[in-house]
User: Fold this.
Amino acid sequence: MSNWSLFLIILSYLGLLFYIALWAERNKKSKWVNNSYIYVLSLAVYCSAWTYYGSIGIAADTGINFLTIYLGPVIAAPLWIVLLRKVIRISAQHKISSLADFISLRYGKNRFLGALVTIICVIGILPYLSLQLKAVSETFEIMTQKSEYVSTSIFDDSTFYIALILAIFAAFFGTQATDASEKRRGIIMSVAFESLIKLVFFLTIGIYVTFYLFDGTTDIVNQFSSRPNFDSLVTLGGLEEGFTWFFTIILSFIAIFLLPRQFQVSVLENHRKKHIKTAIWMFPLYLLLFNIFVIFIAWAGKLKLGDGVNSEYFTLFLPLNEGNVFLAILVFLGGLSAVISMVIVSSLALSIMVSNNLIIPYGFLSNFIKNKSEQNVKNIKNIRRVAIFLIIIVSYAFYYGFSVELSLYSIGLISFVVISQLAPSFFIGLFWNRGASKGAIIGIIGGFLVTFYTLLLPFTIEALTGDRSFVENGLFSIETLRPHALFGLNFLSPPAHAFFWSISVNIFLYIYFSLNTKGNYRERNYAEMFVDSENYDSLQDGAFVWKGEAYVKDIKEMLAKFLGESQAQKSLKTFFTKYDQPADTELADAKLIHFSEQVLTGTIGSASAKILISSVVKEEEVSLTEVLKVLQESKEAIAESKVLKEKSQELQGLTFQLKDANQELIEKDRQKDEFLDTVAHELKTPLTGIRASTELLLEDAEMPNEIREQFLSNMLQDSERLSRLINNILDFEKLANNKRELNMQQHDLSKTISKTITSLETAAAKRKVSLVQKNVHGIQLYYDEDRMIQVFTNLISNAVKFCEPEVGIVTVDYKLGNESIDISVTDNGKGVLKEDQGLIFEKFYQSKNQNTIKPQGTGLGLSISKQIIEKHNGKIWLDKKYNRGARFNIKIPTV
Amino acid sequence: MNERNKILIVDDEPNIVMTLEYAFKKQDFEVFIARDGSEALEILKEKTPNIILLDVMMPKVDGYKTLELIKQNEELKETKVVFLTAKSKTKDVEKGMSLGADKYLTKPFSIKKVVNEIKELIES
Assistant:
């Protein structure tokens, strides 16, 4: 394959990535851009060329050691729910834009610490970056089959151009906003896409090698197991190698948090904390998929190609060896994806650190104070762009100049060890509020020096001169100072050994100097805010302690220099509204100072923000005890407000109960009113008739006899109605208030019914309605006979009332069940109207559908009947399904 | 006034209606009787009484509703309407008057007084 065609393929692939990034930037709100899968795939930036190519080299040469790099992250994943959540919350709250910012803020916005972290990151990552470029260059050569050709000039080297394009890509999409804490959707989307590509292509080559070139995994294992050193490749070499495993796993555990690119994607680019939940299971799954075929490809390579070729590139050599160029191109693009995402995210993360924690606080601040806002924004962006280019160019130069034979794996681990020096101040600082900046600085420097002596120095000397005497004999030929076996610790691999000593020294110094320094108040203030972030989340700016004199006008001017006039105005307005302060406030308080520092942090880093703001305010020293007192007070205020909240909730509950009770009372009152109203009306009506008739009879002597008789009989009727009503009301009242005791005796139901029917016969005959008792079998039951007669009378006379004369029949029937007796009173009248069905048992309810002009009852009959039956523990109801008249059913238990 | 006075009695209590009918006939009124609001409205389609005596609590269409419907009829705007009901609470009286009744009399009543009130109302 020719140089040019491959370069063309690379260019079109990069074009595709540009397009994806651009699309994501323009569709920031799309659900394709904002979902947890994109987040998880972006985390997979962890899998760089080292994973893609390097793992296979390790697997081929030393067996399963490559797994340690993935076991750390797998162990870390479940802890994310606590750890990563906390880090993300703090970062969002303080507008943190890089790892250096995070650490420097924790230790009171310490400028030197921020710069130190930046330098450590640059030292750790630059060689790592250069190795990525090396992988591109080497695979490019393999693809174009010109491995004998060594480029003589930079401009002859395709890798140089690729690096340049990557720098443009990172600079373009990485500096869209001046506020570095803004999310970069474009870059993240392209990284996620690349993560998908590299996994799919890696799986493709894995399946191709295992199932196409060989007969499945067993075939490879069978063929390979006959080789002499097989056992050592699949087992751990005893306890000593176990320690190496242990330390390497811790190392990768730290790396998944602290590699600048991981911090960038997992913390800074996270925009929903709930995405972590998906990441917890999906990211380990991704790593598992990536590692399934590694060992088989490695062994397959050894079997097919022997020891003669660089085992790191088996994935390319194997398909090329079979003449499958297309597959090799896919593998190459997968590897390129791994490189691109790593280089872009790393250079971006580093550039922010370099600009916000190194260049701006140590050189440009005074310029910024003088400049206008547009100039400042332009300058900040340019600093970052230049930083990105510089980082990538220097990495390229490193690769170009150091044309040493270093494996991807070893350089990767060196990188990890360097970065791990940040772990004590990062992790311990999150949970220990005494951790001080002095401890952090001395710890990091001490740890780094140990790393330098035990790992970087011997590595460089050996790589440059090939002389192993330093490693074998130690400094000044003192044996205890041998760099790979310090103080006789000689069984660990060099990275594990360096990690062990450096991290021990680092932790010791960190704790020792933290315990022995008081620290200034600012430091302690932020320590409390970080360690107890959950609590101070609700306090927000209130947890910041500050004493001094500052004018809003000065602060506004300072903000305007970086945000522009209108944005500064807007920010302050938001602040004043939030804290309910008048817009023309003159003197700034602690909250405003903290707020303005936060606003600037995203743009120029926390240390610079602090320096800038303090340049316009007159700050007084606050004693540590004062800080602690204020914080304690805030904590107590929170606790108190919690108690208050609980109490008010309790109170609210009581209020609701009271309301309900009151509602019930009102309802009862209303019912009583209604009852009295109805009673009054029912009493007044016959009384009116009697009064008016009497008056006429008294005054009108000439009244004809028949009319006189009519009036007299009306009066009699009305009087009867009155007494019936009064009796009913008294009955009802007694039943309702449980004043009437039932006179329970044994009776024959059949006799009771016939008694009732006999007493009603005359009235029924008047309306020409016949009464029928269907069942006449005697049944002995216990009940109050008088009351039961009252019920039957009510039901039967109601039925008579609603029947048509001549054809009307009222039937009374009963049936003995297992534990109850069922009685029914049925008529063939017009039935009960649908609208009446639910109401007929209510007191004083009278159907509006009666045959007579005026209902002859009191409206209490059914209501009283219901009470009587219920007193017998029974039930009375209207049979709603019966449609040839009305049927009332009664069920009374017999036991 | 040459023409006979006409009165419409709307009440569902036959015993009460009987006394009123007797008393007004005695005063030479022409008496119409309705047992509820809907019957009253039927009668009012053909007759135009000077006065309507209206009960409130009646089946189907009650007195208040009946008055509302009467008020919509242009031909009846000369007709006076008097409530004669057992509902005697202040809020009931207010409701009746606000609907446009000319008088509100409560049960139980003195028949002499009712007749006098009605006559007065007609003459006014």
About this structure: Helices of chain B lie at 14-26, 37-44, 63-72, 90-98, 111-123. Chain B touches chain A through 24 residues (CB under 8 Å).
